[in-house]
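From: lab user (bench 3)
To: helpdesk
Subject: output format question, protein + zinc ion

Hello, I'm new to running complex predictions and I'm not sure whether the block I got back is the full result or only part of it. Here's what I submitted:
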Amino acid sequence: TKPLDLREAVAQYAASGVAGISVWREAMEGYTTAEVRTLIDDHGLHVVSLVRGGFFVDPTPEGRQAAIDENKRIIDQAAAIGAPLVVLVCGAHPEVPLPVARAQILEGIMAVIPHAVAADVKLAIEPLHPMYADMRSAVNTLEQANDLALATNHSHVGVAFDVYHCWWDPQLEQEIKRCGAHDKLLAYHVCDWKVPPSDLLLDRGLMGEGCIPLRQIRTWVEDAGFEGYIEVEIFSNNYWAQDQSSYIQAIRQAYLDHV
Ligand code: ZN
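Helpdesk reply: Thanks, we reran it on our side. This is the complete output you should expect:
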């Protein structure tokens, strides 16, 4: 619900029976972290995650160091609002070959792990659909995210799995299983893939509006041992232009009917 101010969003979620919220950093502008925490606590919501860190890939060492420093600040912010998790959109750069980019991502994550441990905030690598491999993420399948999380060999690093990015993957069932078997499944995001989307980023569908086998995937996720929040994440110019309280009710209904 991007158009809603955080205060309004929290109030409307609580009134609709929504139990948790992931907070975008942009939504915190104008609030101190203490105010954000109090606001969310006062409405009885749980903070699921802070969105988002990452973007570790850069052609220059200075750029990569700046990203590491920024991620440490993001981890501090997460701890301050009571978020147990930072979602990582790991980064990609058109001048950096994808295998090199993935090595830079691993290096970046390793560099911030001590900070994450000190703050007791976990890091969740979110694989992004390959259409975003140019600028947003060189991690494009759940297999790659699992490989990366396991390569860190650290309990504070896991995976955020979003159906929008991975629903098409023939390895999906086995990689969800693998993720769960290593205790790496930290977050689960749902929406639907419209047929076809009119915008690659900002035309996600309400659950039931597209072609993602949501019930099937939920079974795999729960069989893998996931017990966290199922988060609805719909970036949509169409829905953001509508009345947000009706939109929240539509999300609630779509969740009950199709997730
Ligand atoms: Zn997501």
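A quick orientation on your result: The pocket of zinc ion is lined by residues 126, 162, 189, 233 (CB under 6 Å). Let us know if anything else is unclear.
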